[in-house]
Amino acid sequence: MTLFGTAGIRGAINDRVTPDLALKVGKSLGTYIREGKVTVARDARTSSVMLEGALISGLLSTGIEVISLGLIPTPALAWSTKQLGDAGVMITASHNPPTDNGIKVFNGEGIEFYLEQEEELERIIFSGEYRRAAWDEIKKVRRMDIIDDYIGAVLDFVGHETGLKVLLDEANGAGSVVAPYLLREMGAKVITINAHPDGHFPGRKPEPRYDNIAYLGGLVRELGADLAIAQDGDADRIAVFDERGSYVDEDTLIALFAKLYVEEHGGGTVVTSINTGSRIDKVVEDGGGKVYRVPLGQPHDGIKKYNAIFAAEPWKLIHPKFGLWIDSFVTMGLLIKLIDESGKSLSELVREIPTYYLIKKNVKCPEEYKKAVLDMAQHELQKALRDEIKEVLTISGFRFNLSDGSWVLVRPSGTEPKIRVVVEGVTEKRKEQLFKLAYGIVSRAVERLKQTSRV
Fold first, then answer.
1. Can you tell me whether residue 392 is helix, strand or coil?
2. Host H or E run for residue 390
3. How high is the pLDDT of residue 455?
4. Helix orientation angle between 278-286 and 250-265, rounded to the nearest 10 degrees
5. Which of 28, 61, 80, 94 is catalytic?
6. Among the listed residues 199, 131, 99, 52, the one whose alpha carbon sits nearest the alpha carbon of residue 416
7. Can you tell me the distance from the alpha carbon of 438 to that of 432, in angstroms, rounded to the nearest whole number?
């Protein structure tokens, strides 16, 4: 697709993402659903109000009624869409830099649009075949505050009170209007940082990668907190530190919840993305379950296909009993509940998850080179690892599962001009060996194509 990537439309404001594009998405969505109500919300980015206005204008022009929810997190928009709308739109670039913005579209169940639905929106945009409402068919914009209702729904689902001390880093994002209040309603002692919405993200970069939030480890120990939780710009992502100040790896967090769900169900299917590791397979298979991997950005497609009891990709967890969308607030509530009910600290729970050795690094790559780089890298890596390859997955880039349990993934970013290289080894040495090989091959492929283009 031309406009939609792995997480809706995303890119630099007034370059890839413009008010004109937002207007067209609104007109396209209104044409697609034909009638009904659409919920619209935004994150704290400086450009979000501008895009929101254009998108609402597009919806109104097709005769659609708009429910405007203002500045709220993406999970709250998804929940609200299921309660109130026939579709929903979130203006956000999630964890991208403040220079970017984007548009995510949800169906009436609060699920991000499936691939075929996004393809139809693109078809309508490029054809220009929009529905045009007559003057007396234009509906109203209703403004609603749903934050208290959403917090109440999460509290009811989690069903737990706690006395834990929680350090909460909101990244100056939309989560600031929900997370501190939710946890305090649970009884937690909450310490907040970066907890006022600001589209410049002055506290830290919005992506909750370890290198952006490493300082939380020291703060956890200094403040005597039981855990630290960090969110991204639109608060669908979650990252965690334990009470010792150690970062809980994304795959370990997924494995904790996968283990919980398969034990509760006596088995079942877990869906996770192509870039997650073997510790998830280990705990799910030990619990009598089965893991299926899907392309990044398509966990909801996987839930539909495999009837999954739980789905996740790094930092983004879906709890199907609550709703079929990524929800960090349910995740933080259930994590606190798990800690309390187990009678163990978070570090003790983490030690029950198998250890593997994983590394991720990006190679900058212009969009027009991505396919050629992937083809070249796959050929060279296959030649270098041919006697060790047990399975090849090609659902998003390519992943080589190796005979010793290690794996190598090379995939294009769906939101940025980068190729992502991910390696997991059964030992630290094996990880380093495979990463040096894969990262070197991808980097050289990009450089060769750049040099060729200059000739």
1. strand
2. strand 389-393
3. 56
4. 20
5. 94
6. 99
7. 10
- Amino acid symbol at 81: T
On whether the CB atoms of residues 422 and 381 are closer than 8 A, the answer is no
pTM of the model: 0.89
| Sole residue written with tokens 């659409």 | 38
Nearest of 323, 300, 329 to residue 312 by alpha carbon: 300
Q: Which two tokens stand for residue 30?
A: 């209104």
Take residue 356 and report the two structure tokens written for it: 């593997």
Question: Could you please report the per-residue DSSP string of 306-351?
Answer: HT-SEEEETTEEE-TTT-SSB-HHHHHHHHHHHHHHHTS-HHHHHH
Whether pLDDT at 1 is above 90: no
For residue 264, give the H/E element and its range: helix 250-265
CA distance 301 to 123: 21
pLDDT single digits (tens) 386-433: 899 999 999 889 999 999 989 999 999 877 899 999 999 999 999 999
What pLDDT sits at residue 380?
96
Q: Is 80 known to be catalytic?
A: no
* Token pair belonging to 136: 């007396």
DSSP 354: P
The two three-digit tokens of residue 255, written as one number: 């494995």
Nearest Cα to Cα of residue 333 among 172, 147, 179, 110: 179
**In the numeric block, which tokens belong to residue 102?**
């984007």
How many helices and strands in the chain, by DSSP H and E? 15, 20
Cα-Cα-Cα-Cα torsion 315, 263, 333, 104, nearest 10 degrees, comes to: 40
Instruction: Give percent above pLDDT 90 in the chain.
Output: 90
